[in-house]
Amino acid sequence: MKALIQRVSHGSVSIAGENPRTISHGLVVLLGITHKDAEKEVQWMVEKILNLRVFSRSLKTEPGQSDFDLSVQDSQGELLIVSQFTLYADVRKGRRPDFSQAAPPDQAKQVYDQFVQILKQRYPRVETGEFGASMQVDIRNEGPVTIWLEI
User: What's the CATH number where 60 sits?
Assistant: First the structure.
């Protein structure tokens, strides 16, 4: 499992012209799932995302003050989860990405749904994209802060 996490002041996902699903202060999580991912990886990733300290205690960081003191929970932020199999793109050979390390859609959807369900049980301020849909994602990265997680 891979997650590209961005600290944001705004994030949204639009699907087929519907009203966008939007968050303000929080994290946008682009989530990739591979063949071996199961509940163990889901639990690890949920725990890491919820407790990763990437927020400041104040809106303005003073010299000598850390910008990485609070988790998304501590800062009462929101989460936007977007499934993204392209995180498993292999472009070492040729010009076309190889996605053979990404889980097949049926398996990936089960793991993605489990991830979202467990995350929402632990922290209710969660919005999601739609698995397998063509989406337009808007991310206003703050910092910028971008963290790569992989298990």
Answer: 3.50.80.10
DSSP letters, the chain, are: -EEEEEEEEEEEEEETTPPPEEESSEEEEEEE-BTT--HHHHHHHHHHHHH---B-SSSSPPTT--S--B-TTTTT-EEEEEE-GGGG-B-SSSSSPB-TTBPPHHHHHHHHHHHHHHHHHH-S-EEE--TTS-EEEEEEEEEEEEEEEE-
34 has catalytic annotation: no
Global confidence as pTM: 0.93
Over residues 54-97, the pLDDT tens digits come to 999 875 555 556 789 999 999 999 999 999 999 999 999 999 99
Give the residue carrying structure tokens 């995180």. 87
Answer for the pair 22, 8: CB distance below 8 angstroms, yes or no. Answer: no
Q: How many domains does the chain have?
A: 1
72: containing domain:
2-150
- Active-site annotation holder among 34, 61, 86, 128: 86
